[in-house]
């Protein structure tokens, strides 16, 4: 069966890392139909909008979407703000494709333990951040700048059904791991967080095989630095998840290491998802061969695991990445004395070689 993938390289280092991810897809020997489209600043430069209708239609018709990164300083002052790549491409993609469940694994790779800013094995961790992606302050209305120019308003709204459906994903993931969920909120201050906590308490009573604890977001940020190994699944709302998942990713050593999956409801028994590295466009290093392709390559592994139910190949891709690291290959962001500095494409070639050799 041919599986159709919409490939959206985007801006900055996006095209470079996605090129390596596509090479890995091709090295699997599986059959895919890949179609590339413009998104983000590249689409704005081409046609005046960061998410062309043709790109959105392609994504809707695909079985999965592979995205690079969008944005750059040259787009920061575009008016109206809805035409900026992050606001005009990422948020509409999540909304229009109903990508409400963001899954971000953060696992310290053994060869990169010394790259963590938490030394002496304190950086060892294996957790998953499950972030609600289509609600909260990023999507709620009203959002406005008042007439006097000195007042701005963003509104945070959550509905119980939004909390229930993202929590269901967290329970499902926890059951494949250590059966523990840390639900993160700000219930001592925010009414939305109090609704969040009440809903999780109700669900915990119905899912007693999974241990559910609550933690305030500021404490969670501190605990991630103090002892990240204490966490299994972190479940939280949109903005908190955005911040905490980036913090977790840096504990592993680099933003260039971690993949993510943004998932919708299953259709025809298959999970539709958009897969992307957690890092941004990094225009300062674009075109230099310095970008780390690991996050994009591991995003392909997540795609195979979630959308195509191919755990065997997903495991092989993850093993091939670790094999390249064991061999001492490092891109610039995680390079250290005693390892070999390689380019974006050289690291991708090492992963593809191992896959082709039967990793």
CATH class of the largest domain: Alpha Beta
Strands of the largest sheet, in order across it?
Answer: 2-1-3-12-11-4-5-10-8-9
Query: Which percent band covers the strand fraction?
Result: 15-25%
* Contiguous helical run count: 11
Mean pLDDT: 94
- Unreliable spans: none
Radius of gyration: 20 Å
- Based on the structure, what is the oligomeric state of the protein chains? single chain
Class inferred from helices and paired strands: alpha/beta
Terminal CA distance: 23 Å
What share of the residues lie within helices? Answer: 25-40%
Number of DSSP E strands:
14
CATH architecture of the largest domain: 3-Layer(aba) Sandwich
CATH-assigned homologous superfamily of the largest domain: Isopropylmalate Dehydrogenase
Principal-axis shape equals globular
SSE topology string: EHEHHEHEEEEHEHEHEHEEHHEEH
Largest β sheet strand count, sense and barrel closure: 10 strands, mixed
Structural domains: how many: 2
CATH topology of the largest domain: Isopropylmalate Dehydrogenase
Structure description:
The chain has 359 residues and is an alpha/beta fold. The protein folds into two domains: 1-101 and 257-359, 3-Layer(aba) Sandwich (Isopropylmalate Dehydrogenase), CATH 3.40.718.10; 117-251, Isopropylmalate Dehydrogenase (3-Layer(aba) Sandwich). It is 39% helix and 21% strand. The protein contains eleven helices and 14 strands. It has helices spanning 14-27, 41-47, 53-61, 85-96, 160-174, 191-206, 217-226, 238-251, 294-306, 311-326, 344-356, and strands at residues 3-10, 32-36, 64-69, 101-107, 126-132, 143-145, 152-154, 180-185, 211-216, 233-236, 259-267, 270-277, 329-330, 340-341. The strands form three sheets. A ten-stranded mixed beta sheet has the order 2-1-3-12-11-4-5-10-8-9, sandwiched between helices. A two-stranded antiparallel ribbon has the order 6-7. It has a two-stranded parallel sheet with strand order 13-14. Strand 6 (143-145) and strand 7 form a beta hairpin. Helix 1 packs parallel to helix 11, helix 9 packs antiparallel against helix 10 (311-326) and helix 10 (311-326) packs across helix 11 (344-356). The chain is globular. The protein starts with a strand and ends with a helix. The relative contact order is 0.16. The mean pLDDT is 94.
